[in-house]
Structures are given as structure tokens and as C-alpha cells.
TrEMBL record:
Residues 296-397 form the IspG C-terminal domain. The keyword 4Fe-4S applies. Residues 10-281 form the IspG TIM-barrel domain. This is 4-hydroxy-3-methylbut-2-en-1-yl diphosphate synthase (flavodoxin). It comes from Thioalkalivibrio halophilus. It comes from the Bacteria. The gene is ispG. InterPro entries: Dihydropteroate_synth-like_sf (IPR011005), IspG_bac (IPR016425), IspG_bac-typ (IPR004588), IspG_C (IPR058579), IspG_TIM (IPR058578), NO2/SO3_Rdtase_4Fe4S_sf (IPR045854). GO terms for molecular function: 4 iron, 4 sulfur cluster binding; 4-hydroxy-3-methylbut-2-en-1-yl diphosphate synthase activity (ferredoxin); 4-hydroxy-3-methylbut-2-enyl-diphosphate synthase activity (flavodoxin); iron ion binding. It catalyses: (2E)-4-hydroxy-3-methylbut-2-enyl diphosphate + oxidized [flavodoxin] + H2O + 2 H(+) = 2-C-methyl-D-erythritol 2,4-cyclic diphosphate + reduced [flavodoxin]. Binds 1 [4Fe-4S] cluster.
């Protein structure tokens, strides 16, 4: 793996069996979109996300039915032998739910509190304090998650008024960004004043624009040592959401900023919720920060590759690897760092295959119908005939057993 960026120094925070911050790897998070009151459906989706690689999963706790369901969700996950930490997402009525249903707080590994949605006016401080006191009582960490769509309007109005009095006022956008940071830091300071330990606090300050997100987190990182949760809020659907999230988070991660990430994709109707987990993993792996599963290198295709054969093989190999990883992870330590090349013609095929741990160079248009296979830089066999795909998959399996098995 390539050398990683120097991480911004943060205080480690325990979230159940997972540690966020410090020298620990950047953690992948996700969130369910089921009705939490439906304990079975929610537990099933949490399990799907966890098995896809989400190391922490957040669930909405927005009603008494949802709060009552949280312990059952935890029990169902435990019965599946899944110790993935659950984070409760609270807005507006969180103080009431946590007070009335302490078993909900006990079943959660972390509380997420949005300072802009804990109350208005004179009620705000008391309601915020009630939630922090619950976290203290159950020794739970808190993510203070500020969002520009629900920013504390009293704070923003105060900062806008103060800015207007300055000789050279800032643009409203800049004031809003500073208000996000101020809300996060002031809320963290208040939580510590109430009694929450410094090492039980994680911060986030999410916006939906790439450049504002980068600016906010750069400033936030410069002003605190709390672990930071990264994410472009309301990133969008499909390619737009993936590209925007990747653009923003990659810049910050390269600067060593960020201890845990979530890719907030809007799923296609009937789409797979686990896509956001896969994208988060791909970002971290592409940045050289973590390895989750073997990388498949494949050429984009050109006029030399009029056949779609190599595309199907690359897709099949990638799907096969993802399906096998839960088993491989247990039996073949280090396999997640392996590289497999599936190339479509003689131009770059042999070279890329030699650079990979194991690779195949398929014949392009007009080339001889043979496919040399390279392992650890050396040509080991030439495949021919109608079963090249099956034969290459068998070679991959044998290579993994030999290199990463106990004998290897």
C-alpha cells in the first residue's frame, strides 16, 4: 500500500467495539432508511449494511415506537452475531425519548445530537443538557452533528448582526460557514461543562456543497482535536452523489482530516442501500488509506477490444471477489491488498498483468485467441478455448490459497 497522508491528530473515542480517531483507521459508517419502529426490517437492513462493510450504523429515533424498538433491534443483531455499533439519531424530541426510554440509550453505542434541533429559546439549554446527561449516565459518546439545513437560527442571526457591524463585513456564505463551526465547538464546550468527557465527543459540520465542506472542515480541524465525521449531506443520486462526495472527501482525507466517513447517497427506487458503503470503501482504498477487498484493474476498452468478453470477465471477477470476501477475510489474511488485472488487448495487457499480483491479458480484435496469465510478474500459463473465464477464476482461487493461506 502507498504511504498515507499524515493524519490530523485527534483524541480516540470508543463507539462500542470500534474506536474512532487517534491512530485508528478511518471508519466507514452508513444509515438505515427503514422505519425504526419496524424492528425486524431495521435489524435486517442494519445486518445488510454491516455485512457490506459498514462498521457503524445510524438509525433514526424519532418516536416512542422507534425508541421502544431499539432494544429489540440490538437483540436481533446480537442473535445474528453482529456486534456492529448502533447510533441513535435524535432531533426535536430526543430529550423526551431518552428520558422516558432509558433502555433505548442503553442499547445504543452512541447518540447523535443536532444542536440546531434540540429546542428553541429558553427550552434549548435544558433539553440539550438532558440529552448530554443521558450520555454521561450510560457512558455513551456523542456526535454533535451540525447541518446547514438545520443550523441554530438564533446563533446564525447573532453572528449575522455582529458581522454587519464590522468595517469590512464578510459575505453571508462565509458567516454561515463560521456559524456551523461555532455551533459545533460551542456545543462541544457546553457538553464538557455539563460533564461529558473530552474523549466522548465526535464532531461533524455537514453541507451539500463541495467547496464549502472543504473550507468548513479545514477550519474545524485547525481549531479542535475532536474526531471528525465527514460527509457531504444530501449528496444526491447516482453519479452526481458519488462524484461530489468523492471530490470533497478525497481532498480532506489527503490533508489528513477525517476519522469516519459516510456517503449520503439517495438510492435509486428499489436500489441497494449498501451502495453507499461500497463507495466509502472505494474512496478509502483508492486513497491508499485502507484495504477492504482485492482491486480489479481493467482497461476501459477501445477499437482494439470490439468484443465485450473482457468486460464480462472483469465484472464477473469483481462480483465473485466481493461475494467471497467474508470467507476469505477469515481464512486468508492480507488478501484484501491483492490486485487482479483483467486486460482486453496486447497494448497494455501484458504490462498491467505483470504489475498485478495475478492478471490475464485477453486477446483483442485480430489477435491470437490466447490469454496469457501472469502471477507475481511471471507468465505461468496460457489459457485457450471456451472456458477461459472459468479457468482464470480457478487460477485466482489457487493463487489466493497458495499466497494467503496458512501454508503461504
Amino acid at each position: 500500500m502507498s504511504s498515507s497522508p499524515v493524519r490530523h491528530r485527534t483524541v480516540p473515542v470508543r463507539v462500542g467495539p470500534v474506536t474512532v480517531g487517534g491512530d485508528h483507521p478511518v471508519v466507514v459508517q452508513s444509515m438505515t432508511n427503514t422505519d425504526t419502529a419496524d424492528a425486524l426490517r431495521t435489524a435486517v437492513q442494519v445486518a445488510e449494511l454491516a455485512r457490506a462493510g459498514s462498521e457503524i450504523v445510524r438509525i433514526t429515533v424519532n418516536s416512542e415506537d422507534a425508541a421502544r424498538a431499539v432494544p429489540e433491534i440490538r437483540e436481533r443483531l446480537d442473535a445474528m452475531d453482529l456486534d456492529v455499533p448502533l447510533v441513535g439519531d435524535f432531533h426535536f424530541n430526543g430529550h423526551k425519548l431518552l428520558t422516558k426510554y432509558p433502555e433505548c440509550a442503553e442499547a445504543l453505542a452512541k447518540l447523535r445530537i443536532n444542536p440546531g434541533n434540540v429546542g428553541r429559546g429558553s427550552k434549548r439549554d435544558a433539553q440539550y443538557q438532558a440529552m448530554i446527561e443521558t450520555a454521561i449516565r450510560f457512558d455513551r459518546p456523542v456526535r454533535i452533528g451540525v447541518n446547514w439545513g438545520s443550523l441554530d437560527q438564533e446563533l446564525l442571526a447573532r453572528m449575522m448582526d455582529e458581522n454587519a457591524q464590522q468595517p469590512e463585513p464578510l459575505e453571508p456564505q462565509a458567516v454561515m460557514e463560521q456559524a456551523l463551526i461555532t455551533s459545533a465547538l460551542e456545543s462541544a464546550a457546553e457538553a464538557e461543562r455539563i460533564g461529558l468527557p473530552h474523549d466522548r465527543i465526535i464532531l461533524s459540520a455537514k453541507v451539500s456543497g463541495v467547496q464549502p465542506l472543504i473550507r468548513v472542515y479545514q477550519d474545524l480541524a485547525a481549531r479542535c482535536d475532536y474526531p471528525l465525521h465527514l460527509g457531504l449531506t444530501e449528496a444526491g443520486m447516482g453519479a452526481r452523489g458519488i462524484v461530489a462526495s468523492t471530490a470533497a472527501l478525497s481532498v480532506l482525507l489527503q490533508q489528513g482530516i477525517g476519522d469516519t466517513i459516510r456517503i449520503s447517497l439517495t438510492p435509486e427506487p428499489g436500489g441497494d442501500r449498501t451502495q453507499e458503503v461500497s463507495v466509502a470503501q472505494e474512496i478509502l482504498q483508492s486513497m491508499g488509506l485502507r484495504s477492504f477487498l482485492p482491486s480489479v484493474v481493467a482497461c476501459p476498452g477501445c477499437g482494439r477490444t470490439s468484443s465485450e468478453y473482457f468486460q464480462h470477465l472483469a465484472q464477473d471477477i469483481q462480483s465473485y471477489i466481493r461475494q467471497q470476501m467474508p470467507t476469505w477475510k477469515q481464512h486468508y489474511p492480507g488478501v484484501e491488498e491483492m490486485t487482479v488485472a483483467v486486460m482486453g488487448c496486447v497494448v497494455n495487457g501484458p504490462g498491467e498483468s505483470k504489475h498485478a499480483d495475478i492478471g490475464i491479458s485477453l486477446p483483442g480484435t485480430g489477435e491470437q485467441p490466447v490469454a496469457p496469465v501472469y502471477e507475481d510478474g511471471e507468465k505461468t500459463v496460457t489459457l485457450k478455448g471456451e472456458h477461459i473465464a472459468e479457468d482464470f477464476q480457478a487460477r485466482v482461487e489457487a493463487y489466493i490459497e497458495r499466497r494467503y493461506g496458512q501454508a503461504g
